[in-house]
Amino acid sequence: MVQSPPISDTFYSLVLIRRRMNTLTKFQDLGISLATMKSLKRMGFEEATPIQAQTIPLSLENKDLIGQAQTGTGKTAAFGIPMIDKIDNEKDVIQGIVIAPTRELAIQVSEELYKIGYGKRAKVLAIYGGQDINRQIRALKNRPHIIVGTPGRILDHINRKTLRLENVHTAILDEADEMLNMGFIEDIEAILAQIPEERQTLLFSATMPPPIQRMAERFMKDPQIVRVKTKEVTVPLIEQYYVEVQERSKFDILTRLLDIQSPELAIIFGRTKRRVDELSEALNLRGYNAEGIHGDLSQAKRISVLRKFKEGSIDVLVATDVAARGLDISGVTHVYNFDIPQDPESYVHRIGRTGRAGKTGVAMTFITPREKSYLQVVERTTKRKMDRMKPPTLDEALEGQQKAVIERILQSVESNNLQYYKQAAEELLEQQDATIIVQAVLKMLTKEPDTTPVKLTEEKPLPAKRDRRPDDRNRSYSGGQKGRQKAPVRSRQSSTGKRHNNDRNRSNSNSYR
Ligand SMILES: Nc1ncnc2c1ncn2[C@@H]1O[C@H](COP(=O)(O)OP(=O)(O)OP(=O)(O)O)[C@@H](O)[C@H]1O
Ligand SMILES: [Mg+2]
């Protein structure tokens, strides 16, 4: 290879931008059928994202593929479009299967595939644990073309002989590394053994730690590796900060940050299920509208929590890594890593819940003094430094809340439909000085920092990280330490508190100004 002369970073980014602009790819240039084009148009997809542009033509040629691209860049459609396009809808047999690590992801992927398959009238069915199996058996009798499922439930159906995969030509492993982490490798092997060998196998993720390569060797034929070359593993539109905190002050700092940053929708990651339960309960106690999601909740509960979050009737979702993998919820503005994740891949996936499909986002990571080595590991992986943010003070939190209230008042002034309140306002102004009245209104509307005591069991810091170098110099990031810590099993659902009225539930209402 010819050694190219060193070029400056700015020049390099310019080249990248130009290249990206030149490669804006229209879907019709990728060899997709008119029927599928119709669906894409209906979905509002105009141009293919880079991972779609690069993998769809290969996939249409039936090549086995490993696709890696940043979070939120459209990997689902990258595998979904060609799979759907190859469906023969005259044949009422299962022709494509997607295996995903969690129920929520299976549902989400099946919904996206359903939309892509609209033009072709492809029938898509999600099958996952926790849902009544008889209902699924009846749905399977309806002869879907594509199945999206979690490994355990797919195997269950295979063993019951309610699912036959002998006509499948495309098998997709979404979030394969997570399925490895969760110990699904044997299940996946057993499922793939039921699918004809001439099949096409595709594997997609935002991160590709080394064990994935081994998995690929085992299940795939001469796979083409498509990595969307970007300077960074994480999406540049996500601002990344870290805050140094003591374990015991984490919760107060979190609530201050929430008050200052007023996220529209936020996801807070905790390390264990117990942590998620305690955090969501504590947040509700302090007047935030939060709910938790993790693997011990019933499937119906998990789906209802996610639905509420998507609709905005709760604005803080507290989650474990697994529960949030791959989830595509538009409008998540902030991600808080209450506990730093154990491996750098998790960090990438966690913060990737924001900054999706070209939007911006903010990621905040709490680091306790003994976990500082993890910060470096993450930064080395993402090839990006996080900015340090000082823990905000109570006064700053109050100021943040006041600003938010002033913003709301100004919006209300602009909305210009205040006629009904005019007389009362004039009467009030006769009785009192205008400044005092505004002060009172501000005080009533401002959610003053709440110090209601809460109970949070302290997490032990992660074991000091050995300074591991990437074992493969060509890799764009280092392999993470695998094997997730098993969380203590406890299933307690958090209460569904609405955001409390500002003046109630406050223990220190007189301690300011
Ligand atoms: N070509 C496109 N044009 C516009 N929007 C798109 C396009 N492709 C995908 N999207 C939208 O972008 C969002 C993110 O897509 P998707 O969930 O597939 O990301 P992902 O790469 O799988 O992310 P993750 O690594 O987190 O799983 C979705 O809402 C999807 O509908
Ligand atoms: Mg995905």
TrEMBL record:
Name of the gene: cshA
Single GO MF descriptor: helicase activity
Superkingdom of this protein's organism: Bacteria
Role description: DEAD-box RNA helicase possibly involved in RNA degradation. Unwinds dsRNA in both 5'- and 3'-directions, has RNA-dependent ATPase activity.
Protein name as it appears in the record: DEAD-box ATP-dependent RNA helicase CshA
Cross-referenced PANTHER family: DEAD-BOX ATP-DEPENDENT RNA HELICASE 47, MITOCHONDRIAL, DEAD-BOX ATP-DEPENDENT RNA HELICASE CSHA
Q motif (motif): residue ranges: 25-53
Native source organism of the sequence: Cytobacillus citreus
Record-annotated Helicase C-terminal domain positions: 237-397
Region ranges (Disordered): 452-513
Entry coiled-coil feature ranges: none
Catalytic reaction annotation: ATP + H2O = ADP + phosphate + H(+)
Keywords: ATP-binding, Cytoplasm, Helicase, Hydrolase, Nucleotide-binding, RNA-binding, Stress response
